[in-house]
Amino acid sequence: MRIGLFGGTFNPIHHGHLRTTREVKEHFKLDKIYLIPSALPPHKEASGVANANDRLEMTRLAVSSDPDFYVSDVELKRSGPSFTIDTVYHFKSQLPEDTELHLIMGLDAFLEIDTWKSYSNLFLLIPFIILSRPGAGYDDSHLKWKALEDYLNFRISDGYTFSSSKSCYVHGSKPPVFRIDVSPQDISSTKIRRRVQKGLPIQSLVPEKVEAFIKIKGLYL
Question: Is the pLDDT of residue 203 over 70?
Fold first, then answer.
């Protein structure tokens, strides 16, 4: 079984999250993807972040009819901030030993991973799938992935090289780091929250059930 772990604030979850993870699932032939809302994101301000249980429920509603996704409340059950290292240990201990886990995250977040708790252990535990939209602040794709390769070698561990045959960065003693360009999408949680505050429609940005939940609960007003 090949499983992807995709965590985030999901404030709120939207079509961009879902389309991106579906692209990743198809490209890397993953069997399932776990969506993992964070309880207390250690790298984000709490202001403007909806209640964790509301974000969890929106995530569940978003994928309620999609068997390719599971939603995990593991980070909500833990006390204190949501640290990725603890989440990875949890899944490795709970799933069958032969499960192939992959940690999915965006390039921008990955380029700050050396500030995370026990980040060096993450690179011993699990392969990464790093995703980025075409453009995404770089003039061309080569510069973007060069920034990733430099970061791996200068901030994580020297010895990472790109394997064209495997389409990933390989290291002699660490799991691989994969990369993928995902389709560009003009959707963000920030944009959705601002539209809700202004009373503008969001039905094209989030699943119908999520839109209804936001209205019923009066979120982001």
Answer: yes
